[in-house]
Specification:
single chain; Cytochrome C Oxidase, Chain J; Catalase HpII,  Chain A, domain 1; Hemocyanin, N-terminal domain; 3 domains; ten-stranded antiparallel beta sheet
Amino acid sequence: MENKKLTTASGRPYVEHENTQSAGPRGPLLLQDYILHEKLAHFNRERIPERVVHAKGSGAFGTFTVTHDISKYTRAKLFNEIGKQTRVFLRFSTVGGEKGSADSERDPRGFAVKFYTEDGNFDLVGNNTPIFFIKDPKKFPDFIHTQKRDPYTNLKSATMVWDFWSLNPESLHQVMILMSGRGTPFSYRHMNGYGSHTMSFINKDGERFWVKFHFKTAQGIKNFTDAEAAEMKSKDMDHAQRDLLEAIDRGEFPKWNVKVQIMPEAEAKTYHINPFDLTKVWPHGDYPLHDVGVLELNQNPDNYFADVEQSAFAPAHVVDGIGYSPDKMLQGRLLSYPDAHRYRLGANYEQIPVNRCPFAVNNYQRDGAMRVDGNGGRNPNYFPNSFDNIKPDPSYKEPAQELDSIIADWYDRNAPGEDDHYSQPGKLFREVMTEEQRLETVSNIVGAMSGITGPKRAEIINRQLCHFFRADIELGMRVAQGLGVTGIENMMSGMHGQQTTVSVQ
């Protein structure tokens, strides 16, 4: 094989890659050795800022294949023909940990899919849980701060975590899932994914439907116990990355069955729960799953940094036939996700190959750091103009959305009618979990809450116990007993407005 010349990034061939030019064999170095500066300057910049959340991740390319006709609900081209295949990139991640954290930490897992469609890229940004801890984006920075490091100790803090959760009862449903076996999935291949947010479908007649996406693992659900997850941290902190990579290299391509829940637009106004509340699920008895297709991962990236680290997903990136909803968390993320990518990767992050739409892109964006596509050449950078033939296509126009009489205000996200934080977590514990899963979840809760320290320990524990009791009496009793809390009768009476006095050991 013919040798290639060693060159600088600008293409200049050079020889001395290991020895710096100096004044004599033992003398000081010369400033003119450009290669020294080039190597060190690039090395200093090899680490782009890590993501504030979802910092550590794994990813792979694959295909989405349509298996069922859902054209009566959406005109999106990626769904318009049985057998149609669309290339995808899927990134998995942990949420709260840094880039060097362990894959087996108790944490939600990110599940973000980029569909490369002929109408542009569609990013479905979700998790391995159908819900989330909060339902208003103003609370997101506060929540994430509690999952990171204490500003005084620079250590992870169970006190911060449970203080926030106990002060925000809307988090209880997600806390219950996190403390179950689903909080420590065995691998990315053995967990479900969810779009989580309510999105919208628009069909060829301009009708709108509300939709939730589900990805059911074909490999089967498999979770670590808390002890197994801790053991894996000591054995292999990169277990999930290794598992995914090696499975694909072996030709064992993981698959997920893609399904949707559909709600007619008008039903959202009268449904007994807010269908746009990210802390709630839509019961399958009311809105069953409809089969859509199969997602398969079959190609590992040739370079982790290029594709996994530089991949950028945003729920703002939808395509014709798919739209947004009044989901408040979704509305906040429409802004925050692209903004985060511009901070990490630059204004032109969508020109990076893993993020670039492989089909036609025509717009008037120009300039900015790392512009690598010719910057529009000599074409106009304004619209309208008299020189090019780029025109809006009215067939892609979304139908108008009817809004009720609107009064702009700062509405309490937990106002009457929006404050049932206990029915679904209680049903999850009583009716969905097996007794074995209930025992495991309680054990995990007790273990996690045992880390609460400081002068507010009893106050935080008591406040959180009240939430557990409101969800399910048996749940509250089991957690209280595990924590050694006495005076339970007083606590239960305190839930009805009386003075509460309990003892936390």
